[in-house]
Each structure stands twice: as structure tokens, then as C-alpha cells.
């Protein structure tokens, strides 16, 4: 059981500007956020609101201008396999086949070739790609690529999965299937997850908690809990859940919250 | 020689544009037009020499050149067969290629990854790059002597800039997501370099090597004209001194064919080694 904590985190671009004032921009302001192992926290916000910046901070790709980010109380120092990232544009390595992409985290740890390939095969099977190990990245469909990307992140055995709109580039049908897949994988892995999305529906369906990030500067303006996640894991069909009156009501509510934050911005 | 194939795609674009217009006759494929051009040149050459428009000392007939080529292969010229001359030249170019890869790739990595490396090496490369290799050949001969070492040194120097620059460009062009992904999967700085930065620079490095081969071949032949006792450049230089024009022309054709062959082989290697370069 681990917790990833943002405490009063702010981010200014460019970080620690050489020439203060020139092109400076406060992107995130006073972010307080916690993600525990059992949670899947969905961050929702319009494009440009700072979602990717927030995830990059969690990953350790960026350093906050102010505030601290800790894992179980220990401040993070740059990126680590503790917090594996799944990218929107998959970021798979085209010079490796699917299997070796997944095996990379094992390789980085010094696991011998035969063993890491065997373990990658297991992960391939787990993400439903048992026969795709030899395939080149460009031979895979968008959905398959994201499965490989997720398997690769799992191979790092992270305590947290950081997912930056992993399903954003997929067509609607594939996306629905992948949403359910993502839930199961997350639950099996036991890792906490931070999911970025700009789809209200996706946030509601997948998140145990949904936080709204409103832009200029990015602030967390609303937070709601949702239980649809558990319903799907207990066997309810995604279509049925999305069609239920309570889902629709919460969808409308969340839409209202996001619009309210937009209007606030205009008024300010 | 290195650029021609890239630029070739431009006229082809124009060609397709034409094809879409409602023409009665289908336009000739570019390859046919090229073949006709070559045929016309050879025919003009044959006529010029058949009617002795130019003295055969200056312009031997195509038949004579083919014969000279045959004699070169079978008996040779100035103590060596064509194969031996070509062998000597290829030995130099591949020796130089290996040396310039061994020096150029680490240098390119240093420029691409470290400020110190860039600060130290950039001025050297930028000084060397625009210099015609024959400009420093005399100095190299003074320093290293007239033997194999001076020729290989000159070729290495002519090959280095494109290998170094393409390596540093490849290293710098690595995708940020690719690097970040590795870091978030637990890679150390050294592992990021080995597992991500280098592999992703390979296509660029191979392109640099191919361009270097073209540059090296040009330099090699020129260096052999000036200072050598074997090699294809030396062969045509000797033949020219005795006004054996058919061998000079045969030699030039061989030089061109080898250049085309090197380019072709390099491209095939690129295609085999980095099939993913086309899919990025
Ligand atoms: N490297 C950067 N330098 C300066 N500004 C940036 C940089 N990256 C992002 N931004 C700005 O920060 C804001 C938030 O960007 P981002 O985190 O990518 O938002 P989102 O992922 O929600 O679309 C945007 O206005 C963007 O222009
Ligand atoms: Mg984004």
C-alpha cells in the first residue's frame, strides 16, 4: 500500500527561467493530490489545462517550481520504475519488436535474455497479445500498441501507473474495449493509477475518484468519487453501466463542474 | 553522386502530375528516357570516332574502350590487373571507412550529448568540413609520407565530417518521449544512451556513412592521381601520361560504376538494418 502525494505543487514554464518574465507562465498552481494503491484517480480537464504537465511532474520528468511530490513520504528524485508512464503516442521503440519492448525494463535490471523474453511472453499473454511478440511496432494497430505500452509499464513493476490519455488516439469501439481492459489490468497489478483524459465518460467509468483541473493557471477545482469502476470489475457490461440513469446524471453533473470552471476563468 | 537519387524524386512527382492529364499517348517511363539518353551519347561518341571528327588519340571508339576494359581485366596495366587496381582502391576506402566510423561515431555522440564535447569538437569539424581534401593532402604527405598511411588519412578526414555530423544530428533528434519512457522504466543515464539514444540514431548514422562513402571515393581517386603506385586513380593517371586514352576512359567508367555500386550496397544495408526508419 503506497501513496503518491502532491503538496502545494506549482509549476512555472520555463522552470527556473533564465530571463524572468520572458515567456513565463504559471501552468499549475497549488496542486494538492493523493493517489493510493487501490485508487485510479482520473484527471479531467480541457486541453492546455496542464494535465500532461501534472503527469510529467509525477513521473519526475519535470521538477515543481514550488511544493513537494512524495511517494510514501519520500520526495521523488527524478523518474524511476516506481512510476511507470504510458504515453498517448505509445512511445514504443520501433527498433525492437513487441516482445523486446516489453522486456526492456527487465533488461535494464540485468535479467538474462532467455528469462526476460519468457517474462515478456507472459505479459504479452496477459494483455491479450500472446501471438504478437515477433511483430514490429508498425505492424500493430493503435489498440495493440497501447496494450504493448501498458505491458511494458507493468514489466517495470511500478507502484504507480501514470497514464497520459492512453486511449485518446483510439477509435470509439476499440476505446470501449480498452477501457474495460485497462480496469482489469490495473486491478490485477495492485498499482495505484493516475489517468489523464479529456473524456468525461471515460473519467467517470474508470476513476475511483475524478478530479477536475481547470486552466490558467491549472487548479484542481472539483473532486468526486465514483463507483462504476467496481461495477465493471464485478462483471457489469460497460454499455449497461454507461446507459444507467445514475451514470448519466453524474455525467451531466461533471460536465456542469467543468463548464463552471471555464466560466470562472472567463469571469476572472 | 550521393544526392542524385534523392533529387530524382522531384521530376517523378512532375511526371505523375502529367499522367493525370487526359493525354492520348502514355508518357515514357523515366528509365526508358534515361536509357535512350545513354544510347544517344554512345551513338554520338561512336559516330564521332568512326568519322574521325576527333583524333582517335583523344577519343578512341567505344569498341576500343570495351577492348581496353577486356585487356585490363585479363592482362592489366602498369604491373597490375584491373582487379588488383580496384582491390588496392577498395582496400584503402574500406580501411578508411572503418577508421572513420571508429572515430566519427564516438565524436558525434560527444557532440550530440555533451556541451564540453560540442565545444571542443564543433570548431574542428566545422573547419574540416568545407575544406577540399586535396587542399590538405600535401601537408599530410609531409607529415605521414607518401605511403598508404597518407592516403588513408586523407580519406578518413574527408569522411569524418559527414559521419560526425550525422551521428550528432541523430543523437540530438531522439524523441523526448522515447527517452522519458526509458527513464520511467528505470534506465540510468548510461542505459538511456545505449538502449534508446544510440539505436534511434542508427538511421541517421547510416545515411552519414553512405554520404561519407561517396565523399571518400571521390577523395580516394583524386589522392591516387597525385600520390600512389597502385589503385584505380593511379591507373588512369599513368595511362594519361602515355596518352593511352582508351584505358583512361575505361578507368573512368569503372570508377563511376564502383561509385554507383557502393551507393547501392549502402542503401541496401540501410534498408535491411533499419526497416523501421521508414515507419517513424
Ligand atoms: N515546455 C513548455 N514550455 C512552456 N510552456 C509549456 C510547455 N509545456 C506546456 N506548456 C504550456 O503549459 C500549458 C499546459 O500544457 P499541458 O500540460 O500539455 O496541458 P494538457 O496536457 O492539459 O493539454 C499549456 O498552455 C502549454 O502551452
Ligand atoms: Mg496533454
From TrEMBL, chain A:
Annotated SUPFAM superfamilies: P-loop containing nucleoside triphosphate hydrolases
SMART domains in the cross-refs: AAA (SM00382)
Gene Ontology MF annotations: ATP binding; ATP hydrolysis activity
InterPro entries, A to Z = AAA+_ATPase (IPR003593), ABC_transporter-like_ATP-bd (IPR003439), ABC_transporter-like_CS (IPR017871), ABC_transporter_ATP-bind (IPR050166), P-loop_NTPase (IPR027417)
Protein keywords = ATP-binding, Cell inner membrane, Cell membrane, Membrane, Nucleotide-binding, Translocase, Transport
**From which domain of life does this come?**
Bacteria
Its family remark reads:
Belongs to the ABC transporter superfamily.
Full protein name? Taurine transport system ATP-binding protein
Automatic annotation (TrEMBL), chain B:
Q: Mind telling me which residue stretches traverse the membrane in this protein? A: 30-53, 65-83, 89-112, 124-146, 152-175, 240-262
Asked if the keyword Ligase belongs to this entry, the reply reads no
Q: According to its UniProt record, where is this protein located?
A: Cell membrane
InterPro entries referenced in this protein's UniProt entry, alphabetically: MetI-like, MetI-like_sf
Offer one example of a GO biological process linked to this entry: cellular response to sulfur starvation
* Record-linked PROSITE patterns: ABC_TM1
- What is the topology of this protein in the membrane according to its UniProt annotation? Multi-pass membrane protein
Say yes or no: keyword Cell wall biogenesis/degradation present.
Answer: no
Q: Which residues form the ABC transmembrane type-1 domain?
A: 86-266
A Pfam family that this protein carries is BPD_transp_1
Please provide, in alphabetical order, the Gene Ontology terms of the cellular component aspect for this entry: plasma membrane
Reported function: Probably part of an ABC transporter complex. Probably responsible for the translocation of the substrate across the membrane.
* Record PANTHER family: ALKANE SULFONATE ABC TRANSPORTER-RELATED, MEMBRANE SUBUNIT, TAURINE TRANSPORT SYSTEM PERMEASE PROTEIN TAUC
- Protein family (similarity comment): Belongs to the binding-protein-dependent transport system permease family.
Question: What is the name of this protein?
Answer: Taurine transport system permease protein
Q: What is the lineage of its organism?
A: Bacteria, Pseudomonadati, Pseudomonadota, Alphaproteobacteria, Hyphomicrobiales
